[in-house]
Each structure stands twice: as C-alpha cells, then as structure tokens.
Amino acid sequence: xxxxxxxxxxxxxxxxxxxxxxxxxxxxxxxxxxxxxxxxxxxxxxxxxxxxxxxxxxxxxxxxxxxxxxxxxxxxxxxxxxxxxxxxxxxxxxxxxxxxxxxxxxxxxxxxxxxxxxxxxxxxxxxxxxxxxxxxxxxxxxxxxxxxxxxxxxxxxxxxxxxxxxxxxxxxxxxxxxxxxxxxxxxxxxxxxxxxxxxxxxxxxxxxxxxxxxxxxxxxxxxxxxxxxxxxxxxxxxxxxxxxxxxxxxxxxxxxxxxxxxxxxxxxxxxxxxxxxxxxxxxxxxxxxxxxxxxxxxxxxxxxxxxxxxxxxxxxxxxxxxxxxxxxxxxxxxxxxxxxxxxxxxxxxxxxxxxxxxxxxxxxxxxxxxxxxxxxxxxxxxxxxxxxxxxxxxxxxxxxxxxxxxxxxxxxxxxxxxxxxxxxxxxxxxxxxxxxxxxxxxxxxxxxxxxxxxxxxxxxxxxxxxxxxxxxxxxxxxxxxxxxxxxxxxxxxx
Length: 494
Fold this sequence. Notes:
By secondary structure, the protein is mainly α.
C-alpha cells in the first residue's frame, strides 16, 4: 500500500501541467541543498580547529557541550521558517479507498526524508569520532551523538505538530520570540546562560547511554503525538472549512471617516486579517519593531554623535509594514483586480485606501517605537524624521516600483520562502530604501552636522506630505495607463 501511495504521488507530479517548471526548480533546490550540506560537512570536519581558535586552551568537548543548546535553538528557528508541512497532500488522498492511518504514516515518514534531518549528523559526526570516541570510547560516542540526533529529530516531529497547531497565530509568534530571547537575548544581556544549564546533560551523554534513551523515547513519543493530532484533524470538511479568525470581520472604525478611500482601507484590513500570507506580514512587522535593540544597545554603535546605521534602523522600524506589504502593492488584489478595473473610480479608491492604510500603520509603528527614547532622545528624533521621510517620500517610491509588472499570488499560502508575486521590482526596492535616505542625510551631516542631516531628512518628508496628492497622482496615472496589461497578467495561473 505504501508503494501505491508513492506511485500516486509520482503520477500527480508527472502529469501536472507545470511538471517541467517544477522539475527545473527542484533541480536548482537539490543543487543548493547539496551545496549547503557540503558546507555543513566541511564545518564538521574543521569543528575542533574552529573551537581551538575561538577558545584556545579550553577543553573542546566541554565547551561544545555548553554551546549545543544554542545550535538546537537555532535549529528550532530554521525549521520553523523552512520545514514544510505534509498535510497539504491530504485533500487529494482522503477520498481514496485507502486507510487514513496509512496515509498519515506515509506523509509523516516522507516528511522525515529531508536535508534538515542530516545537518546535525554531518556537523557533529566527525567531532564525535575524533574527540568523544577517543576519550570515552564507542559507548560514549554513541550516547553523545545519539542524544544530539534524537534531540534534532524530536524537533522535527515537534515542528510538524507546532506549525500545524500554532503557525501564523499570536501564540506561535510568542513562542518564536521566546526562543529568540533564550537563544541570544538572555546571554547577551548577561541575565542567564541557558547553555551552562543544559551542558551537564550532554556531558553525561558522553559517558552514559541514559540521556540518549530518554530522548529517543521522547522522539518516538513526539512522533505519535503528531500522528494522533493529524489523524484526529484529517477530515475533508475541516480541510475545506475556512479558518476562523477572531476579529476577521471587524473594521478599523476611524478609517470610515475618509469616504471611499476609508472603505477600501477597511476592506484591505479585512484581507490582511483573513489570509495567511498577509497576516504573516503583519505579525512580522510587529516583531521587527524590536529591531532597534540589536543596534541601540550594542557598544559597537555607541558614540558621541549619531551612527549612520541608525538612519536605516529608523526607516526600517517606522516603515516595516509599508516596505513589506507595499512591495506587493497590487499582487494582494490579483484575484479580484478586474472588479476594481470595471468599477467607476475603483482603482482610484483602491490606491487611496492602500495609501491610507500604509500611513495609519506607519503612525502606529512610530508610536510603538517611542519607548526607544529610554536609550536616548536622539533615537526618538531619528524615528520621527525617518517616519516623515517614509510617508512623505519613500512610500511613493516603493509603490511606483511595485507597479512595474506586478505578478499574481495565492494569499492562502504562507509567507516564508514563498516567492509568488515577487519579481525584479521587489529586489530593486532595496536600493531606494537603503540609499535614498542617505542621499539626503550624508551631505548635510558632513558639511554642517549630523542633526542638520536629520532635519533635512524630516523637512523633505514634510514637503512630501504637503504635496501628497500630486505625488499620489503620479502613481495613479501610471496604474490607469497599465491597468489592462496588469489585469491580463493577473489572469495567468499562479
């Protein structure tokens, strides 16, 4: 029966109209995965030399044991963003006369065949042979390496359950943030070193098989927890049922005061809340409000004046939603773009509504960044002038570039490593975002003072706000001239 399921999956892929494109993409991904695994293997072969250079004179095994937990916290993060869920296949299989239990087992076992599950083996196997086996023998090597692998594979099954249960939710975002805090924040601030707390477990594993057997049992148990969750939720009516999201039908009341533009902004807000990809962008925007903690508390960037990198940080914090969501300006509406084309003043209301929403959320981001004044009033001033520059100038530039050959996309797919809707214009947007603020800031900073550069940045943004309507009319005119070409491209299959 397992072979029959494999045969059905092969036929599905082979008979697809996009088989050639999928095969080419798969070939590129396989090459990149092989190249990455080769780098991991090389890192494993030279791991002991790397440790000697980083901490000369210390016991490599003891030091590595205190670092291993950070590897697993990092593994949690890259599995969260990269690891795919197998349940996407269920809807095409559950109607077949095949036992549901067998289908679930097949999908879970197939998900285990992944390059992610051999990273730990390639990285730590050479070290376990050259150091652990040499000091503690074969039993020590088996216990130490077995604990690492069982820990890594437990994360595999846990992530399948966690992403299916909490992905794209507030709880999931809190957990990911907590892992990041444990992985770097606590140690960086000197509050708590989780590595030293966990190190004795790995030290014990190099002399005893008990930790290995405990985590092997945990790995098996996690597999069956994941299996039972998938089994209990694998019904066609559940798969086809739209996800219930709290506040999905709620409007932002204050936007209704702006006429048709406000109504379109409210519709855009509902689109963001209801769909997986746009909702992920919104949550990531909230998460990246903490971006300043990386720079504002780092002694490397502290000085008497204003470090030039703070300009980019201010632009990023106060305009993150506009930058992320705005780069796919029309792609979000690709499924119903014809509705706006055929409606009187539909495109104009759509554009105005998006502008209004960008400004509203940018204001919210600026307000949420006010606590950075704790690190110094200059940071609040930086955020204020970059906020003005974002909504006065940069927003129009990003939208202008986003109107260059926009591509359709499926809103129900996740945002991570999903490149639907992304084209050359989205990569070009990095240039004005990175360079344009400095084109204004640096001449005044060098010739007059750093605060003069900030004032020039803020004044230009304020001028852009005053001339908002003429600047918006440029993008609107461009959209109206290209509306039929854009509509035709959106009708193509994603």
